[in-house]
């Protein structure tokens, strides 16, 4: 029996989730598919994208979002766009590799802009659309050694608000979801870098860096983020636009 309440489903709707091969993206693909959407799973990892797409009865799009010029002329036929793809680089500003900074911004700010730009005409034509930007607590506050990530997420917050203002009269909402550290491969890959820049053992990174600011001392689970994304696509989220929804265990309350 389908547990999704009547009226909260996405039957007949199309959804696109970037970074959908693992972590938050894969969880969002599962959530939206469970609500009835046909999901396109976009990721640079073609095998991973195909595996998730087959699981949810959707399709895979092998996309390198760092090649932003390839997206300039793109047009997307999607009702729900989840901008989730991301990478991380951890380094003091004076040592930050300039091309790493540019890469983070291409994937996490330029590509979302171009995907929104590609999706809005169809959403406007249908009079309905949902843009969900998976931001971060780092879209609201900063941490040292993350100049590229923090600035890209702050930019994504601004993009989301402008999209909300322009899209409102066309039935399109735009929001940011702002998790703290989530139990994903992206977070796991940071541990060694965080230990290096903070000068602590890897075994201490979780407690002393990742969870230090949070009131609830655990990682966020991907399905918790996806559940919020699912709710925001439903009718009860229709008046939620231009907002940032923290799911960070109280981190941003400081």
Give the rounded overall mean pLDDT.
95
SS-derived structural category? alpha/beta
Tell me how many strands there are: 7
Instruction: Quote the distance from N terminus to C terminus.
Output: 42 Å
> What is the global morphology?
globular
Main pleated-sheet profile: 7 strands, parallel
User: Helical residue percent?
Assistant: 40-55%
Question: What is the structure about, briefly put?
Answer:
Belongs to the short-chain dehydrogenases/reductases (SDR) family. By secondary structure, the protein is of the alpha/beta class. Helix content is about 40%, strand content about 15%.
How would you describe what is shown here?
The protein is α/β, with parallel strands linked by helices and about 250 residues long. It contains 8 helices and 7 strands, in the order E-H-E-H-E-E-H-E-H-E-H-H-H-H-E. The protein has helices spanning about 25-35, 45-55, 100-125, 145-165, 185-190, 190-200, 205-210, 220-235; strands at about 15-20, 40-45, 60, 80-85, 130-135, 170-180, 245. A 7-stranded parallel sheet has the order 3-2-1-4-5-6-7, with helices on both faces. Helix 2 links the parallel strand 2 (about 40-45) and strand 3. Helix 1 runs parallel beside helix 2 (about 45-55). The radius of gyration is 18 Å and the shape is globular. The protein starts with 13 loop residues before the first strand and ends in a 7-residue tail after the last strand.
